[in-house]
Every structure is written in structure tokens, then in C-alpha cells.
Amino acid sequence: MNNRIKEGSSMICAYGRSDGSSSIMSFDGSETRQSTDDNKQAHQSLVEWLNETLPYLKLPWEASEEDLRACLMDGTVFCNLLNQLSPGSLKMGGSFELASLNIERFLTAMDEMALPRFEASDLQQGDMVPVLQSLKALKASFSDNGYDKNTLCAMRRWSWPEDHSNLKGLDSNFNDGLQLKEGSEINISHAKILDLLKSNNLQNTSTRSLFDMLDKLLDESVQKMNVDVSHAFASILRGIVEVVEQRISNQAENLKNQNILFRVREEKYRSRIKVLETLASGTTDEKELVSEEQDVLQLKKERERRDADISKLKQELELVKETHEEQFLNLESNAQIAKIELEKQLKDSELRVVESTEKAKELENLWETKSKRWEKKEQTYKSFIYHQTEALQELRATSMSLKQEVLKARENYYQDLNYYGLKLRGVVHAAKNYQVVVEENRKLYNEVQELKGNIRVYCRIRPFLEGQNKSETSIEYTGENGELVVANPLMQGKDTHRFFKFNKVFGPASTQEEVFLDTRPLIRSILDGYNVCIFAYGQTGSGKTYTMSGPSINSEEDWGVNYRALNDLFHLTQSSQNTVMYEVGVQMVEIYNEQVRDLLSDDVPDASMHCVRSTEDVLELMDIGLMNRAVGATALNAKSSRSHSVLSVHVRGVDVKTDSILRGSLHLVDLAGSERVDRSEVTGDRLREAQHINKSLSALGDVIFALAHKNPHVPYRNSKLTQVLQNSLGGQAKTLMFVQINPDEGSYAETVSTLKFAERVSGVELGAARSYKEGRDVRQLMEQVSNLKDMIAKKDEDLQKFQNVNGIQKRGLSNLRFESPSPRRHSLGGASPNASRRKQGSGLLRTTSDSARHNESSSKFSETDGSISSRAMELSLFPETSNPPEMSEQSEQSEKANAGPSKSLKHTPRPDQTRPSRLSISTSSSSKALTSSKRPINGFSSSVKPLSRKR
Ligand SMILES: Nc1ncnc2c1ncn2[C@@H]1O[C@H](COP(=O)(O)OP(=O)(O)OP(=O)(O)O)[C@@H](O)[C@H]1O
């Protein structure tokens, strides 16, 4: 038996390595390791194995033996290890089970598996080698043989150590027996035991396992009673007994060693105790005693001090205690108060709680009722929405159908549009024709009007002035074709509305420019040789002067008809200079209290004619004339002009080629206010002015009435005004009247009477207007006639002188009468009280002798032509002109007709009237006219004066 365990070795245990190699270690610590590296490796592989089997351990790779001890100390790791390797092999108790119990269980299991065990004391404080040895064996048994865990579990009680090299000595006879008895049932056990012996692991098998095996073998041997087997049993038994004996001896030895160790340790401890006892009972020095006494004294002092401190502290403590007690009492009382308050608050809060609960209940009820209401509402809304959605769907359907209808309609519409477009073209074409026809109609109407010679009447409505109430208007309607409806807002009924129709009605917003545009054609006809008369009629303050002159000369925009007309004339004459040479002369007179006065100069007895060559000349002249105009204040208009002003423009044109002459004249008349006397609230001079104005205006009305009825007699001589306008009203002139209207309701009566007058005027037919053009032959004849007239006049004068010389004695008294001028003969610039007053105020003052001279010349003017002074003025400018035949006839007729009421204007010949006078040229003094006519055409008469202001 080579590998048998040596006798005498204290205790031999195999430190099993994973690779199957082993190291022998004696129990007393002497090592016979094959190599330290191998041990380290074995140790590390064990640690690895532990970590692999129980990963929760997480042992460090280089865990020391002490680390392992700490880990394994409580025995749970052992139990877990076994359970992991062989599940269910150990029944674990609670987690707080005793460590010794766990270790005991593990050791029992190791015994059962016949694996080497260790002692619990080794694990606690002894050598860790046996412990590690056991774990190595466990590792080797579960990993190296490749056993299934379950199999191992099942076999663990009967598994033999594989390595039986130590028991090799036992197997010689045993092998023989075994070989002989192969195939018998008992051979299995024998083979196992043999394997165990061969694997030399009998040493590692636990003693109990060995005895169990022995029992079994004996039982089997008794049952079989085989002689051949008995030898093998004997050898096995011998081996087992040897092992057991060895173990027992080992344990006895071990016990001996332990006893020795204990004894050695006991001795050691005893010696130490002695040393300590001697140290404890050692002698003391005297010096030490003294110092100790001093120390005691110091300690006593300190104690006294501390006692004093303690008493002080006690006192302080007492004080603190007292104060604390006081504070405690205060706090207690405060606490009481607070408690009471808190109780109160508690009660309040309880009450509040009660209230709030009540409120909460109320709110709950309210909420319930509200929620019910909301639910109801929700229901209604839902039903509403349902209906709405239904309606919406219906609407969608209808909208779809509508869309289709619209598309259809659009198609139809486009078709219709094309159709109507075609039709419309035809209509447009027709409309164009219609416009042309209308235009033609208008032209024809105008032509008819012109042929008839109707007086044109334009009505102009003044805008409301500042401070006037615009709502109180009497103007009801103005039409574009000259219709006008006025109404009395203060009265109601049918008759309150009155309808009028004129050639044109200009509303309050009409501008000066617009008014003139409709007047311009008339003015242009002057250059064709027509006589034109434009006069403004209306009550005071209705805008007559505004229309005729304008509010101011400075702004061209404000210019009235006067300035615009003259401006236009100048432009026209200048543009046609190459064909016709024009001369323009201007006169300006006023008729004030039935007296005619020159407004442009005071040193000439007649109405002076002023040659003008530009608009500037005219402006200057008119400025002078306006300043000289009599202006009197009345209750109606602070600057009311109380006279009629007449601006006369005479144009003579000579055709450069034919030498034919044409003459035209324009009379622009700004009449005085047409209101009734009582309304002007005037007396004295002003009353007289008003009476004269009314008289002259009614004379104008009479003339118009006579003309309208085509009476044989027209009473031109009833007033200076009608005399002045005679040619314009009845001499085939073109006449335009501006009827000025005041829109306020207070002037309704005046407005109606003004409009009635205008209506009558518009019905007057003057006959077709005639142009005054004279050919060369006519002019020669006219000159001959003029010469003859001059000769007759001379003879008349001689005759007159002769008669005067003869009858001078007979009519001595009547001479006196001639010396005092009759009012009629001073009609032009007569020395009326007003005239002298104006002279004083405006620089037009004349001395008494001047006045007399002027009266004389004025009377001469009246004597020469009582019918119309304007014609006389015209002739004074262009003396070669003779009256047209109709006019002379008419004048004669008028003179005859005026024998009755207008006698006051009739000329009474005076002895000194034989003196030639310019004014006499127009009628009776034809000889003078003939003489004058010999003068060059471009020269004005002596009455043409330079411009001068009457200042
Ligand atoms: N179309 C108009 N636009 C603005 N203001 C106007 C118009 N017509 C007249 N007026 C103003 O009305 C007032 C009276 O006008 P205007 O003096 O012209 O009246 P009249 O009829 O000439 O008066 P009278 O008879 O007293 O001379 C003036 O202050 C004038 O500026």
C-alpha cells in the first residue's frame, strides 16, 4: 500500500484544488506546500467559485482568509451554498437563526456527503485552512465530475470520494474478488467501495459514512454468505478499521496537542496574572504621598470653591425658579385669558360653522335647483341644437339647390346681358340722336326767341347772409330749365305756392363765373353790331350790385357782369384786330331822384364818354364811378344804393377790307331797390328817394306792359330810367333782366311781386334784334343828309334869332321864366339839393355859377332828346351816326304820345338854344351832327375826357 497515510503524522488533510492537485498540511501549522503560487491560485479559484455560485456575495478577487471568515461566520453562506448546489438539500430556518446551528447543519451535510469537515472554532478564531479545505472539497465534488446536481443530490449519501489513491493498498485482494464476482448484484457495492478505495478519498469520507457503508456490507455479506466475497470484505473492513483507528488516534493526538496548547496558554496567563498582581500591589514612594496630600488639599479647596459656586448657583437657581414661577403664573393667567378667548372664538367659529353649514345647505339646495335648471336647459339646448342641426341640414340642402338656381340664373343673366347689351347699343345710338335733336330743338327755340326778340329773364337767388336762419326760406323748388316755386311758410293752403318760369334760375350756390357764362353770348353780339341791355331788378339787398359789379374789384373771381363783360370785349377786339378795328367808349351815369348825373366827370355838362383801351382803364373808370355813386343808408341795407346806375359801353368797328362800319352798345343797369316805401321806414329825403325810385320802376313796368300788349304808344318819357332804356327795351335790342330774389321768408311778399314783374317782362316781345352795319354808299348818303341837316339847322337858327329879336319886347316877362331852370331841364346833373350835398361830400362840389352852367348844359341835353339820353350819348361819341329810322319815328311818336302825363319831360325851347350842342346832334340839331360826322373815325368828340376821379 504505497499511498497509505503515514503513521505518526499528526493530522493530515487534503487541501483540494480545483485542478485535482493537493497539498499536505500538518495540523500544528507546519506547511509542506508544493508551491505558494498554487495555493494563491487555489484560493482565488475558490473565491471565484463562491462568487459564481452565490453572486450576491460579491467577494473581492483577492479576498483574504479573514474576509472569508467574516463572510462565512454566521453559517448562512454555507447553507445557501449547499442549497444552491443541491436545491432542497437543507431546510433553512428564519433569517435570525443561530450561526452555530447553520454551521452544524452544513457540517452534518458535509459528513453525509463524506466530504471533509472543519470545526466551528476554526471558523470563529482558529485557522481557516480546514474551512477552506472543506469548501474546496465541496467545490471539487460539484464541479469536476460533471455530475448533474439532482443526481448528486440523490447520490450524496452514497457518493464516495473519487480519489482513493491513499487506499490503493487495500485493493489487491479486493480487485481479485471483484473480478471473480463480476456480474453478481453484490459486485456493484464492491465496485463502488473499490472505486472509493482507489480514489484515495477514504480519508475524506466521514466516519459515520464509513460505518454506514460497513453496516451495509455486513448486512449484504450476512445475506449472501459468500466465501469469495468475505476476503474482499475483510480487506475492506481492514482498510476501514485502519482508517477509523487512524482517525481516532489522530483525534486523540489532536486532543493531546490541544491539551498541551491549553496548558501552555494557561501558564502564560498565570504568569501574566502574577505580573499584574505584583504591579497592583507594588510599594509607593513617600514623595508620592506628599504630592498626593497636596493634591488632596487642592482638591478640597476646589471642592470648597465648587461648593460655593454650587450655593451661588443654587441661589441663582432659586431666583430663576422664582422668576420662572412668576412667568409661569403670568403665562398661566395669560393662558387662562387666551383659553377664554379661544373658547369664545371656538364658540364663534362653532356658530360660524353652524351658519356655514346652513349656508352650505342653502347653497346645496340652490345648487340642486340650479343644476336641475341647468339640466332642463341642457335638455332644451340639446333639443334646440338637434333642431338647429336639422334646420342646418335643410338649409344646406336648400343652399345647394339655391346655388344651382343661382348658377342657372347667372347663365340666364349673362344671356340676358348679352341680349340687352345689343339692345342697349341701339338705345345709345338712339339717345345720341335724341341729344342731337334736343340740342337742335333748344337752338331752334332760342332762335325763335331771338327772332321774337323776347326779353330774357334770368332769376338769381341770393344765399342766406350770416346770422340769417337758413330753414326759414321761401324758395321751395328751383328747376334746371328755369322753373321756380316759391311758398309762404307762414301760410298754409293751395295758394301759398307760386310757380314761375324764366329762361334760367341761378340758385344760391351759383358763382359769378357761372352767371356770366350764360350772359357772354349776348355780350359778344355787341361786336356784331347789336345793342344789348342788361339790367338787374329786385328789392334792396337782393344782390343786384353783387351780380352787376361784384363784391369787390380786387379779386377776379368776385367780378360781376360789368367787369367780366368789358374784359371779354377787350380780349375779343384785340384778337380780331387784323380784320376789324374797334373803338370802345364808356359812359357811366346814375339816375338819382329823377336826375341823370355823370359819374365819371363833373366838369362836362353832358354824360362824358371815355375812351378805354384795356381792362385796367375800365377798372379805374368804374372805381371812380362807384365811388361817386349815391349811396344812402336805409333800415334794410346799410349800403343801399338809392339810385339807378347805368354803365354804357359803345363799340364802333371798321372793317379793314370793306370799310364798312358796325356799331354796338351795351347798357348795364343796376336798378335801385324795388321795395315798397313803407317797408323802408324812411322819411324826409330818404322818403323822397324811395318815391322817385318807385315812380321810375312803375314807369318801367308801364313801358313793359305797353310793349307786352303791343300798344301803339309806349310811355318811355314817364321817367328818366325808361328814357335811358328806351333803345334797349324797344329798339330791337337784345335785353336781359336779372331778377334778384331774397330767399328769407320775411321777404316773401316782395319776392312774389318782383317775380310777377319779371314774369311780365319775360313775356315782352321786342321784335327781332338788328345789327347796325353801314356800307360805304350808305355812309356817303348819310353824310349828304347830315350836311343838308346842318344847312337846315343853320337856317333854323337864323330864323330863331330873327324871331327872338322881333318878339323880345312882347315876351319881356317870359324871359324871367327862362332864367329860372325848370326841374325837368336839370335832369342831367341838375343842381338838386342832393347833388349839392354829394358835391360837398365827394369832391364833386360845384360853385353856384358852375351849377348854373351845368344846369344849362343838362337842360340842353334834355331839350335835344327827351326820349333817350343813351342814344344821345352814343352819338356824342360817334357823331357821324344818325338815328336809325325806326328809332326817330318812335321818338317822334313818343313825344307826341307823351303830351299828357309826361309833359314835365318835354322840351320847352329856350332862346339860347340856338347854340350848337353835342346833345342836340341826336335829334333836332342834325346840322351839328353832320358837321361832326366829318371828323376822322378814330377821333372821339370833345366830350371824351381823360380819366379823373371826383375827389
Ligand atoms: N350771390 C351772392 N353771394 C354772396 N353774397 C351775396 C350774393 N348776392 C348778394 N350778396 C350779398 O348781399 C348783400 C346785399 O347785396 P347787394 O348790395 O348786391 O344788394 P342790392 O340788391 O344791390 O341792394 P341795393 O338795392 O340796396 O343796392 C351784400 O352784402 C352782398 O355781398
Automatic annotation (TrEMBL):
Q: A single Gene Ontology molecular function, please? A: microtubule binding
Which InterPro entries does this UniProt record tie to the protein? CH_dom, CH_dom_sf, Kinesin-like_fam, Kinesin_motor_CS, Kinesin_motor_dom, Kinesin_motor_dom_sf, P-loop_NTPase
Q: Which family does it belong to?
A: Belongs to the TRAFAC class myosin-kinesin ATPase superfamily. Kinesin family. KIN-14 subfamily.
What GO CC annotations are associated with the protein?
A: microtubule
Q: Which domain of life is it from?
A: Eukaryota
Keywords attached to this Swiss-Prot or TrEMBL record, sorted alphabetically, are:
ATP-binding, Coiled coil, Microtubule, Motor protein, Nucleotide-binding
Q: Which residues form a coiled coil?
A: 296-366, 392-454, 778-805
Query: What residue spans carry the region label Disordered?
Result: 813-951
Query: What is the protein name stated in its UniProt record?
Result: Kinesin-like protein
Extent of Low complexity compositional bias: 917-935
The organism's lineage is:
Eukaryota, Viridiplantae, Streptophyta, Embryophyta, Tracheophyta
List where Polar residues composition bias occurs: 858-870
